[in-house]
Amino acid sequence: MAQLFANDIKYLRIYPMQKKSEAGSALLELIQDIGIPSAIHTDGAKELSMGKWKSVCSDFGIKQTITEPYSPWRNRAELNIREAKKKIHLLMSRTNTPKCLWDYCASYVADITCLTANDIYVLHGRTPHEMVTGNTPDITEYVEFSWYQPIIYYEDLLFPDTKRKIARWLGVAHHVGQALCYWLLANSGQVIARTTVQQLTDDELLSPVIQQEIRDFDLQVSQVLASDTFWNSDSSFDDIFSNDVYGQECVEPYDPSAEMPNQNEFPDYDSYDQYISAQVLLPRGDSYEKGTVIRRK
Q1: How far apart are CA 6 and CA 8, in angstroms?
Q2: Helix (H, G, I), strand (E, B), or coil: what is residue 59?
Q3: Which residues in 97-236 belong to E strands, given as ranges?
């Protein structure tokens, strides 16, 4: 599972966890990485209001508020959870990524979201990362590689073992080594951190020898991780995010009719007509205002 943090300018952080009780540790890691938030808004889950979470909020003077029951759309994290799931699903399905690597993909998606400028007015063309930290981001670590891309790296092995090895790229290893250190999936199925990473050139990718090496690598990984653990278009993210009323059973009685509809669940545009004249709540500043759907675009 994972704990997700977000704000109203699409600054996003995702921290994988093994159990819900680690939510307080995720909050502490957020503070160490970014700084102390002045306030935090959560649902009424126990792990987000008691135990270590409550202790961390108290120690750092973080004001906490809780959403009203049956109103999940009033928590900005819920929308970001849904959007993150879509992006992770797209990346993993396109690259046939092993399911067990979803947490690395989630961290990568959060990084890219923070480093991408969007049309939110208060950003004025800047990225969420710059608005939150005050520093213009250096995207060098991200521009050369893409998710689950086949790459080569070098190991300091004794002759006659080859030092050049095939791997798959899994994102930036922020807390390991120096700059330009990356997470890689080795042919053993283990995730390793290395700086000796290099892109395969277009000519190398067209080489039958390299193509065979990549096929052998994927075959070995599939045997280690089991082929049924690979991603496909039918995979879902149920029970991954601990604070997700859309993907798992809520910690409090939940009225399904209170859930905001998702237009992407409908296959054709004609279905959208049912939203005409619908009453909706839209965020404006620190509050919400009622609106009416007048047309689709």
Answers
A1: 7
A2: helix
A3: 150-154, 164-172, 182-185, 191-194, 197-199
Compare 179 and 239 and report the one with higher pLDDT.
179
d(CA 115, CA 126): 9
Identify the weakest region by mean pLDDT among 91-95, 231-235, 241-245. 241-245
pTM exceeds 0.90, yes or no: no
Domains and CATH numbers, the chain: 2-133 (3.30.420.10), 142-229 (2.30.30), 261-292 (no CATH)
Report the C-alpha gap between 218 and 224 in whole angstroms. 10
> d(Cα 60, Cα 36) in Å, to the nearest integer?
7
Q: How far apart are CA 265 and CA 236, in angstroms?
A: 14
Q: Which run of H or of E encompasses 4?
A: strand 2-6
What does the pLDDT look like over 115-155, one tens digit per residue? Answer: 999 888 988 889 999 999 998 898 999 999 999 999 999 88
Amino acid at 254: Y
Tell me, what's the pLDDT at 280? 86
Distance CA(190)–CA(195), nearest Å, equals 16
Q: Cα separation of 97 and 7, whole Å?
A: 29
User: One-letter amino acid identity for 170?
Assistant: L
How far is it, in rounded angstroms, from Cα 165 to Cα 155?
8
How remote is the C-alpha of 221 from its chain's centroid? 23
In this prediction, residue 252 has a pLDDT band, given cuts at 50, 70 and 90, of very low
- The rounded Cα 86 to chain-centroid distance in angstroms is 10
Six-digit token string for 285: 């500043």
Q: At 281, list the tokens.
A: 């709540």
